Amino acid sequence: MLVIISTLANKNEELQTFLETVDTTLSGLQEESSKVTSDLEAELEQLSSALDEKGAELRGAIKEEAQRKEVQLQKQLSEGRVAMMSCEELLDFANQTLTITNEEEFLKAAKQIKERVTMAPAFRLTTRPAASSSFSEFTVDFSVERAGLQRLHFLPVPAAPQVDPSCCVVCDNTVMVAWQPAGEGGADGGGGRIERYEVEYRKTNQESPLRAAGACWEKIHDITDTQVTITGLKFDSHFVVVRVRARNKAAAGEFSEPVAIETT
């Protein structure tokens, strides 16, 4: 009976710890979901701002070119009207000259006409528009970019590694922890190339990792191998609970299942 009572008491304590862990996880879930939603909104806002800026830049380029062409054409239009008036005046003068019967006066008028024709704006004006109405160089096709936007998705993160207790070694106040990346030792861990690992550990007298939930995690960052030696420990507890997660260029993935390593 005492064995049964002890077993039930231990199970009750384990369940209590489990419920506390789930409750803490639930609170963290709500906080984390709010954070990533906020991060998403910030990224979308930056995309929208970048699109607005680029749109303003492209619209500005079209407007600038339209103004440049308009100035050139308006100048040509003004010069053309002046040339036409001059040509019409010269034509009237030439027609009047034809009515002169005096040969000397006729020759004099003809000479004047020749000089005026030589200097006439109509004969110095280029009769081709200085600019075309075409804006073909401003044609756009953002189908590739739209397709890129459709491919927007969350960054892949590595799956949780797996601590290998059989390869972990305890010796002289040190613990060598070894693990395997997810996917049977694949280099990318299922979420892009792994750049480094992070290990967390804490001491406990409870064999169950859940029942060590009250302790604070110690952290080791920037591990490039699939093992690390924890030094400077004092084996004043029966177990060291360890967990590990992989990190790629984007972010860190989930932690592995915690493993309790016996130290005494």
Automatic annotation (TrEMBL):
The COS domain extends over 98-155
Keywords, ordered alphabetically: Coiled coil
The yes or no answer to whether the keyword Coiled coil is present is yes
- Gene3D superfamilies per UniProt: Immunoglobulins
What residue stretches are annotated with the Fibronectin type-III domain?
157-264
Coiled-coil segments, which residues? 37-64
Top-level taxon in the UniProt lineage: Eukaryota
Protein name in UniProt:
FSD1-like protein
